[in-house]
Amino acid sequence: MEADSKNDLWAFREGRRDAATCGLYRELADAANRLCEHPADAGLAISALMRAGEFESGLADANSGAQIPAQQLTDRLAEAFLGESAGLAAVPDLLNRISRFDLPPAISISPPEGFAYYALHPHDFARLVERMPRQSASALVVGIRSIGTTLSAIVRAALKQEGKSTERLTVRPTGHPYDRALHFTREQKKEIDKWYAAGSDLLVVDEGPGRSGSSFLSVAEALMQAGVSSDRITLLGSRQADASHLCAANARQRWSKFRFIWPEPSVYTRFSNHTYIGAGSWRDLLLNDRSSWPACWPQMERLKFLAPDRRFLFKFEGFGRFGEEVVLRAKILAKAGFGCTADDAGDGMVCYPVIRGHSLQARELSTRLIGHLARYCAFRAAEFRASDAPASQLPAMVGFNLSQEFGLDLPSAMENLITAEPILTDGRMHPHEWIGGPDGRLIKTDACTHGDDHFFPGPCDIAWDLAGAVVEWNMDDHAADLFLSEFRKISGLNRAAVIRDFILAYTIFQVAYWGMAVSTVTGSDEESRVLSTYQHYRRLAERQLRKLLAARQSTASSTITCPDDIHVRIPSW
User: Which one, of 411, 415, 373, 417, lies nearest residue 505 by Cα?
Assistant: First the structure.
């Protein structure tokens, strides 16, 4: 049975944003020049390569002529990453050529999710060429923007090292995420015709496939429409694909036409003597009571290992600037006494000390704990401001999910979710994320990534964390009032007027998150736990909706369309 997308909710936020081109250029130039000074530094090589791919992709989307030297720069940096440092001699000239173009004021960029969240190591894609069928001595590499730009440069460099004649181009499929389409430009079509006529292989490169597989399919099918036979097309992705779970139209039939290969991760074998604690397995080692385990969406958990002596935990937090920012936040929290410090462990991994103590539970809520939670939220509101953040997508997310899940239309209900003072929230205020140490200290774990990953909320008002604490600690009205009062005394910020809307937004997001997770754990030990968690948040959302509707119907009933029964939609799982 093929996957069905019609019941999908909105849990992933759109990470694409417009950034000043001059600023991105300066960051790229700085990263590339540092690599030129230290060509053997693997961390600098990945950082420079990521920035180059991002910059090239943005220029290509803007149809800027500077994309040509930008592509050449990405190629030289990919070669340097694979040990061919001679190409770094061309870097200063390429940077100079780019700077002489009339660059657009801003370009659109998005996080390279595999490099930022999913422990996708560029070296693993380089090794993919070893598993490719040896059909031809030449290959045209087609990268799917955005991250496919960088990955295509890696594949091209690896092919070049093997002595193959190779070149690359990049494309941007458009349309609905589950129904992408692609039309090659005239120049791209000429390039494809030239390489195909020469007997070359056509390689389509991207991370994924994602939920639908439609980006890969759109490019592969566009190649076929351009006259390329399917047996000459190979798709290179980052994870094994089960076509029955792809929700693009007729995905299984369409996917079966093409050869697909993916990497076998090898970079993290240096942790082979450590204990793997990803995909929820950390619960078995760190939480004693199995009946109280929190649910887990295994595919969305970061890669994690526990050291043999159980003194340190290694977690993937992202390559380049992504991991650097996490380490910086951790040190800020540790200095303030709220968290533990962190150190860069290479390959996107960050090393944290294992905190001795016990994971807290909601029943332990006390006046002291409420005060600590308030101080923590006040600290984040002051220290982790995100003034350059793009406009929040929270209102749109809540509106879509209310319509999809409950059949409700609340057109003006969520204006309070917009703030002029966004911050990077914690996003995980659950009791088990707090450790009570034997010395009485309360330490927040997992505090540095979720406010800045590809899920909601993204940068937003601190009221998101306030709402998360109220919900996850099961605060009654008295406890919630005390919590908000303490927060106001410490921070000077009064969020009492907006907390109800943020509690609704928080629970609606959790409904979407766990609702999407259900279909990914079918038949596993995790299924009942995930389904129970989804149902828990749905009941909370229903309760909040009843309160909201009761409060607004007397003053704004004409703007609210409400079915008689908000249980109108029953999920199909």
Answer: 417
Identify which of 119, 126, 122 has the alpha carbon closest to the alpha carbon of residue 53: 122
pLDDT > 70: percent of the chain: 94
Cβ-contact 474, 362 below 8 angstroms = yes
What is the per-residue pLDDT for 241?
86
Q: What is the pLDDT of residues 483-496, one digit of tens each?
A: 999 999 999 999 99
Contact predicate 263/151, CB 8 Å: no
Q: What is the pLDDT of residues 555-568, one digit of tens each?
A: 554 444 444 444 43
Q: Which H or E run includes 19?
A: strand 17-20
In angstroms, how far is the first alpha carbon of the chain from the final one?
A: 13
Q: Please tell me the distance from the alpha carbon of residue 98 to that of residue 443, in angstroms, as a whole number.
A: 47
Beta strands in 354-423 (DSSP E): 358-359
The pLDDT tens digits of the residues spanning 422-477 come to 999 999 999 999 999 988 999 999 999 999 899 999 999 999 999 999 999 999 99
Residues linked to residue 385 through DSSP beta bridges, in sequence order: 423
Q: How far is CA 563 from CA 434, 466, 553, in A?
A: 40, 30, 13
Please give the DSSP secondary-structure letter assigned to residue 227: T
- Mean pLDDT to the nearest integer, 275-285: 93
What SS3 class is residue 359?
strand
Question: Is the bond preceding residue 146 a cis peptide, omega within 30 degrees?
Answer: yes
- Can the peptide bond before residue 572 be classed as cis, meaning omega within 30 degrees of 0? no
Distances (CA, A) of 324 to 93, 315, 510: 28, 13, 28
- Strand 201-205 and strand 138-144: the pairing is parallel
CA gap 24, 545 in Å, rounded: 43
For residue 363, give the amino acid letter.
R
> Hey, how many other C-beta atoms are within 10 angstroms of the C-beta on 65?
13
Chain centre to alpha carbon of residue 322: 11
Tokens of 382: 């002051």
Q: Are 9 and 404 in contact (CB under 8 A)?
A: yes
Listed residue (220, 196, 226, 200) closest to 208, CA to CA: 220
Angle subtended at Cα 362 by Cα 357 and Cα 364, rounded to the nearest 5 degrees? 60
**Looking at the chain, how many residues does it have?**
573
